[in-house]
């Protein structure tokens, strides 16, 4: 068994550890979220940027604080577009390695030009430069990968931000739901692997589209990145209803359109499923049991766990990981060795804003 498959399958155990570690990190954190007019910025690169996108939506929903997500490079390239000057800002800097050039440059830029901004590093490397630079750290070393491709680190770092946001928002009911996730995944992980294999190893598949709304759109973007890294299959992601506004033109017989179904948008998403079928596409729905009947997809995976949309988010991802893995294997690729890619991206033009 390759590393990637093991890391995908390790998620129930790693989530358990993350829930504990993050609650401890919260106790030790000195970063304050009490300021009036607080604005929270989430930054990252690649997978960690898509994570930031989902995290910003989930954080705002749980806490009521305004949030934005941006690629880390925008902090120093277009700072006025992402750093409001009339608000108290806290930045979550997300990076598995804690060594990616842009994330370090962003934090150094903030320290130099916005010294009042507090930073929290969310990383799987507690010895990294990011962990040293930030005011507080959520250290998730157990969730790092041997693989280049990020699978369990994505879900664990997202889960950690959710724990923080439930604690900041005083949302004990959400925390209670998050604590149920490892068992919920453990019970269904072998079915997820089988489902992922069924979709990913289908010879008739020529392209994939992933659709989700709000935080789930970030998950959909991350699902495309997995597939691109591991298989180079043409794939795209959209907000579910946006797909109708033009992109639906790309649907053809080999197109698989995967819906990240949620309770909140099921009425409307089920119409999009119908549209996809009407233009000759093949619809795949991953949906909670409460709304499963509404999605008349060709094939459906039902998430049989009674959690709200907010808490359920990470539960969709192992299926996406298994789809990408199965497709890589069926195309004869080694999932542990993605094309043109290393674990960490280091820029040649690596400006040190901190001067250290
Ligand atoms: C982010 C990242 C990954 C990508 C590749 C290179 O790294 O861009 O998303 O898959 O491994 O690095 P990090 O900042 O989260 O370590």
Give a quick set of tags describing it:
45% helix, 356 residues, 10 strands, 17% strand, alpha/beta, 5-stranded parallel beta sheet, binds 1-O-phosphono-beta-D-fructopyranose
Q: Could you walk me through the main structural features you see in this protein, from its secondary elements to its overall organization?
A:
This protein is an alpha/beta fold. Helix content is 45%, strand content 17%. It contains 14 helices and ten strands. A five-stranded parallel sheet has the order 2-1-3-4-5, sandwiched between helices. It has a five-stranded parallel sheet with strand order 7-6-8-9-10, with helices on both faces. Helix 2 runs parallel beside helix 8. The longest helix has 20 residues, at 181-200. It is globular, with a radius of gyration of 20 Å. The termini are far apart. It binds 1-O-phosphono-beta-D-fructopyranose (F1P). 1-O-phosphono-beta-D-fructopyranose (F1P) binds at residues 45-48, 95-97, 100, 103, 148-150, 229, 341, 343-345.
